[in-house]
Structures are given as structure tokens and as C-alpha cells.
Amino acid sequence: MASIFRGVIGLIQVTVERVGFDQDSDQAVLLLSDLSKSFILPIWVRAQEATAIALSLEDLKPPRPVTADLSATIIERLGASVVMALITEIKDEVFHSVLVINHGGRELELDSRPSDSIAIALRTSSPIYVADSVMAEAGIPSKTTEVQ
User: Fold this and answer.
1) Is 119 within the bounds of a domain?
2) Is the pTM of this model over 0.85?
């Protein structure tokens, strides 16, 4: 089986620019930015998943591991490493992602929610990529974006 990220024409490396929380709902938004900060990709997630990402961005350790901490520990203890988190597509208005791990020289792609793959990538200091088709469809030029 061919690797999914090898089949993607272009990949854009991104960072988590900001996590914003909606005080009135269980929703939050992740703002991903390409490295040149030309585009912002907003991805709406549940507040719990956003909190896991915000903890990692702030380098805070909760008293008990959250799911992303557990997942990163399992990957490491099994002798594998995270290659990347990759936002692959938008289907029916839902972002899709894979977490690519390397185990013994073999790359494995694990279907994942973007929030989970991003949280694990942050914990393992692994890069985060977005397929250029996703950025073209949902990205917003940052010059026109007022991030608050």
C-alpha cells in the first residue's frame, strides 16, 4: 500500500498559532498557520481536545496524563516514533487527518481526528502538515484575518 502522504501533491508545514475558546459552548478553534504566516487554517474542535493542545503549547503537565500523553507514551514505549501529523482532506465539511508513525523502518498511517494527531505531534515535537488542497479550500489569507 502506498503511503498517503507520498500521494499528496503538496504539503504545507504549519504550526498551531493560537487556540481560541468559545465561552458559551463546548467549542474551540485551532488556528494553524503556514511557516511564512501567509495563511491561517481554522479548525473547530471540542473544548476538551483544544485544552489538550493548549496544555502542550504552554508546556504544562496536568496532574494525570490526558489521552494525547498516553498515546505519545505508548508510541515511544513500543519503539516507534511520530513522523508527522497530516491534515489530509475535508469531506462533508469535516477535516480528516492521519498520524504517521515509524516502527522499525516501516511507516504506518493511523486515521485520526485532527485534534488528536496535532496534540500527539506537539507532545513528540513532530511536524504538522496540511495538504495544499485543504489549505486552498479552507485557508484564509492572514492579511485579511483579524485574530483575537
Assistant:
1) yes
2) yes
